[in-house]
Amino acid sequence: MIKLTKILSELLNTFEVTALLTSDKKVSITEILDQIRALQKVTTVRNVTPPEYMTQSSSEHTILILKFVTRGEAKQDLEFIKSNILTQGKDRTDLRIPGVKNFKFKYETLKRK
């Protein structure tokens, strides 16, 4: 008899990647991370920013470790997640998650979990 865990591990692949987030200091980072956690395919988001990491007067820079689940190509799903965080247009005032100024994945850190 096939175990449920074996079936799930074959159907779903879990990946982990590091991301860089630039946000507005006026919006709580906890609120932004909660909204990222609520996105489709995202399972966990951890803030791993060291205390001495750079900050600017109006922006906060955060290092995240993001875990996500995919059935297909991981890099395509990363683009899907990023498009759900930021808009694709050039008008940066129309953000899907309020307070997010910029979001980038470090593709070289992508690994299967």
Low-pLDDT regions: none
Strand count = 4
For the biggest sheet, the summary is: 4 strands, antiparallel
Average pLDDT: 85
Q: Give the class from helix and strand content and strand pairing.
A: alpha+beta
How many separate domains make up the residues?
Answer: 1
Helix content: 25-40%
The string of secondary-structure elements, in order, is: HEHEEHE
Strand content: 35-45%
Commentary on this structure:
This protein has 113 residues and is of the alpha+beta class. The protein has one domain. 26% of the residues lie in helices and 38% in strands. The protein has helices at 4-11, 29-37, 74-85, and strands at 13-24, 42-47, 59-70, 100-112. It is elongated. The two termini are 25 Å apart.
Secondary-structure map:
Blueprint (H helix, E strand, L loop, with lengths): L3 H8 L1 E12 L4 H9 L4 E6 L11 E12 L3 H12 L14 E13 L1
List keywords for this structure.
26% helix; 113 residues; four-stranded antiparallel beta sheet; 3 helices
Question: TL;DR?
Answer:
The chain is 26% helix and 38% strand. The protein is α+β, with helices and mostly antiparallel strands.
